[in-house]
């Protein structure tokens, strides 16, 4: 099996992607609920629902990165076990 990134980078990407997913889902939920702190100022978005959708879409992108990097972590673990058995 071929790896595209190193084991450290894959682990770091997985952890950061997981944190990004949590943050974006919480932020999207807050915008969807029209939390006053996020929607009361002049510089805030005109349509909080569209902003929430953008947050959820970004969370899906992060989930794809999490899946890819998680697979890379598993491939590294599999390859290291194969080398030990030789």
From TrEMBL:
Signal peptide: none annotated. It is a multi-pass membrane protein. It comes from the Eukaryota. Keywords: Membrane, Transmembrane, Transmembrane helix. It holds the Pfam family V-ATPase_su_f. The chain crosses the membrane at residues 56-75. Its main location: membrane. One of its GO terms (cellular component) is membrane. InterPro entries: Ribonucl_Kappa, RNase_K. It is found in: Membrane. One of its GO terms (molecular function) is RNA endonuclease activity. This is MARVEL domain-containing protein. It comes from Rhizopus delemar (strain RA 99-880 / ATCC MYA-4621 / FGSC 9543 / NRRL 43880) (Mucormycosis agent).
């Amino acid at each position: 099996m071929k790896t595209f990134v190193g084991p450290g980078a894959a682990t770091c990407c997985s952890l950061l992607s997981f944190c990004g997913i949590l943050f974006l889902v919480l932020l999207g939920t807050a915008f969807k609920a029209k939390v006053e702190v996020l929607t009361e100022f002049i510089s805030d978005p005109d349509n909080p629902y569209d902003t929430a959708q953008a947050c959820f879409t970004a969370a899906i992108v992060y989930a794809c990165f999490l899946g890819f990097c998680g697979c890379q972590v598993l491939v590294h673990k599999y390859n290291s076990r194969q080398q030990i058995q030789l």
